[in-house]
Fold this sequence. Notes:
14 helices; 9 strands; nine-stranded mixed sheet; alpha/beta
Amino acid sequence: CGAAHGRTSSSAAFSMLRMSGGSAADKPSIGFLGMGIMGVPMSQNLIKAGYSVTVWNRSPEKCAPVVKAGAAQATTAAEVVKSCDITFAMLSDPAAAEAVAFGPQGVIEAMCEGKGYVDISTVDPACAVKIAEAIRAKGGSYLEAPVSGSKKPAEDGALIFLCGGDKKLYEQCIDAFQVMGKKHLFLGEVGAGAKMKLVVNMVMGSMLSAYSEGLALASAADLRIDDVMDVVNNGAIACPMFSIKGPQMKTGSYPPAFPLKHAQKDMKLALLLADELGVALPTSAAANEQYKAAKGRGKGDEDFAAVHSNYE
């Protein structure tokens, strides 16, 4: 396949970018697959920084905000890969990641030497390895880079990228990572990023489930929830998540920044990884049941703070 937009190659484009100081004309062309809660603001930040961005989503209408901001819209994932130096993908789960990679008019169909694929979805390590092997077999470069952070950090360009795979592609993506995030780490081989993300989200989910239980106990004990939140927010266990999610739990309003169904998916994947490695995680297993119960109550598309709906 030929170089995107007449460029000699993605690596050459990046070499010119760094030598020239990074003018808009020398930036690599970026593809972005997945226009959800995270993909839209991340793409918009790239456009604001002067990148040429081409987007695609299974539901085409979700591309509208990014197209309005200046992105081109493709009709297939393969079209995005063909037209761009590097393609990012922010998809909902392993099944979606594999469908977009391996399906008709998908990523693998258009992949070739000189192109890069950066999967920022949260998937299990086996899924990351499977996609990486297929990308490399076609001559492309692969980097997993799941992000720590939800809607507001995505809007603010304050995400954390947890990367594994081709080190050269990682280095080529640093400028874009700096636009979309506040920190980026290279953790080693493919699978390391997925494992790190599952650890982080498992801890996060367990923490919020415990906070929900604490608020439920406080309410039953006739304590004022505002007082509980005040004590928590000024004590040793204070954290941004509790200060943001506590008021949502108090009011029972859960606008989605990180949908509960995705939080539960990540808890499940972490527990499956633990089972493979023979590590007992009783606290996280119990928290996962709380998220499953809330999802069963129809709260899957609401924020993961809706785990507290079990006590409403």
